[in-house]
Amino acid sequence: MATVLEKPTNDASPAPRARPASEIPVVPGIPFLGNTLEMAKDPAAFFVRCYREHGPVFRIKVFGRESIVIAGPESATFMTTREGRDALRSKEFWEGLIKEYGATETITSTDGERHIKLRTLMREGFSREAVQGQYDNLRDITDRAIGRRWDVGTDIPVVEAMQYMVVEQLGMLLTGQAPLEYVKDIRFAILTILNVLVTRQRPKIMLHDPRFRKARRRVEELGHTMIADFQRKVADGTAPKNLITDIIRANLDDKDIMPDQNLILTVTGPYVAGLDTAANTMAACIYGVLKNPEVLARVQAEADELFAKETLNEDDIRKLPVINGAVMEAMRLWPIAVAQMRVANFDFEYAGYTIPKDEMIYIGTSVPHFMEEFFPDVNKFDVDRYQRPRAEHLQKGAYSPFGRGPHSCLGQGLAEVLMAMSIARIFHRLDLALPHPNYELKTKTAPTPGPAMDFAVKVIGERRPSGI
Ligand code: HEM
């Protein structure tokens, strides 16, 4: 689908010339704002409509900037090809975050050889294996998080509750401590940073808000504490083998790949990467399950069977077709990364058009999630789609909740375990209800698309007691 235009060719009969970028179809918008309102309301639906009406490449104007969008299954496949890897870079989108931390790079901002090195360094720590031997512990951590907020008779704002749960789980698994006294500041700092510096949907003035400055200082303090603690443990040989140890060791052994000024951003990175992503997805999943009583009954039965086991292992979590299907449906219907954002490294051809060097591009990999061609009865929360022989997600370019290409989610394995355990434990322990049976989920788009912060469920009762 794509060809590099700058590469010399020996071919005697040249390929038909790509049409210039100026001919890429423009999505009509309103004066000044362009397509901002439609994009801000529901980015996934906006990209699907544009793809249907304008094809796999189009031009939009949002948040005061013109950008090219490539979308659909072809764009998802393109991301994984050699051409796609060479043609696209990520740097520009993370510059604000890097500057804010006084760092030189993050794993998300780096491409090529250095990026491969950083991924190799962090791969194990972010993987499913990182939870090996800790499944019972993770169940207990999850119980503690439930015990802290989900009281019978109360209404629970789900996204916020899941954010607290994720921070507690990540903190305990990676550092052995739940940074509970830091959770409020981690949330505030990260959500502001994502809004202002990464997705740039909020004004820079927010960075001067004293509440943000305080939250940032606290995250910095947490980072310093984590580093000092692990440096001590690495020195006296008591450090567990995990992500943070791997990062600290790299800093001691190879300052080129992990310089001192990148440490704070890197060790607190899991919270940035996991907070909104996993919390939004789990909140959407809770909605999807409660909205479909037959799914709820199956989730409860599967969870009850799981927790009838005295001790849990990786296989037990992997083999949860209904619960994992529910999480996958949540990621399909409410993808946190509607599009991946990149810049073109050089002129290249895509779908018959020239994509110019240094152009900002959205890659709408989630568009096929909403296409009947791939997912029949596309709006149905159908947890069985992913089972063979249907396996609808395995069609080419169809399903990309964790992104595509070199920057695809490194924490996928860890995220899948955390989400399956949390959803299983919540529905095993608690009887929940939507505000009313006809309730329709309201969504937000900033900083990450997902359920609105005021989406709340009622805790009607306790089905099973805590295991701790
Ligand atoms: C539902 C949960 C999650 C989803 C849907 C998700 C999705 C994504 C996506 C789409 C990207 C690629 C962004 C891009 O290409 O621009 C990404 C990157 C990443 N994610 Fe996740 N994520 C989730 C949870 C997590 C968690 C829990 C962690 C770790 C604690 C994590 C760690 C990372 C890292 C380190 C990267 C950067 C990879 C790189 O740049 O090479 N993610 N994630």
Automatic annotation (TrEMBL):
Family, similarity comment: Belongs to the cytochrome P450 family.
Entry superkingdom: Bacteria
Name by which UniProt lists this protein: Epi-isozizaene 5-monooxygenase/(E)-beta-farnesene synthase
SUPFAM superfamilies cross-referenced by the UniProt entry: Cytochrome P450 (SSF48264)
Listed Low complexity bias regions: 12-21
Assigned EC number: 1.14.13.106
InterPro entries: Cyt_P450, Cyt_P450_CS, Cyt_P450_E_grp-I, Cyt_P450_sf
Entry annotated with the keyword tRNA processing: no
Sites where the protein binds heme: 409
An example Gene Ontology molecular-function term: monooxygenase activity
Keywords annotated in UniProt: Heme, Iron, Metal-binding, Monooxygenase, Oxidoreductase
Cofactor(s) annotated in UniProt: heme
Range of residues in the leader sequence: none
GO biological process: sterol metabolic process
Region named Disordered: 1-21
